[in-house]
Amino acid sequence: MARIPYADMSALPDDLREWHAKLPPNSHLFMMVAHAEASAATLMQVGLQQIRELELSARLRELAANATACVLGADYLRVRHNPPGVPITADEREAVYLGDHSGFSGIDLAVLTFATAVARGLPVDDAEFAPVRAELSDRQIVELIQVIGYYWMFGQFANVLQIDAEPYEK
């Protein structure tokens, strides 16, 4: 059970109710973030931009998001970050969440290693950065760090506030 109640969508400003209507059903995380009325719409917009406008591939974004969830032990992200059309398999997602990168290679492994290091909040050493630098553009590296930071923030919301992790409704 969540530590604080979810926002009452009927009591929120029109712009936040409109955002909520665009979200998948039972989006408890966004119902919690909506308490911060001044920034909730901005956070939702950033999330949509990460899906629609980044040069970084959807697969690499998903690997980074799941590696971040692993570091945080964020069950909410593990359960919820499984939307239709996700470009990684259920087995890959489970392996990443368990910290098992042995089935990955190339840029996938580089991103997993880098994302894990960034999500831990410690300095990223040259051995963790070099493989990403060799494969990604400057823009993609910055986008990758943004994706990791975004999911780290939402993972912390979920963990600290003990947000209920329910799978997507079909």
From TrEMBL:
Q: Could you give a GO molecular-function term held by this entry?
A: peroxidase activity
The alphabetized UniProt keywords are: Oxidoreductase, Peroxidase
Q: Keyword Oxidoreductase on this protein?
A: yes
From which domain of life does this come?
Bacteria
Recorded protein name is Alkylhydroperoxidase family enzyme
Task: Read off the lineage from the record.
Answer: Bacteria, Bacillati, Actinomycetota, Actinomycetes, Streptosporangiales
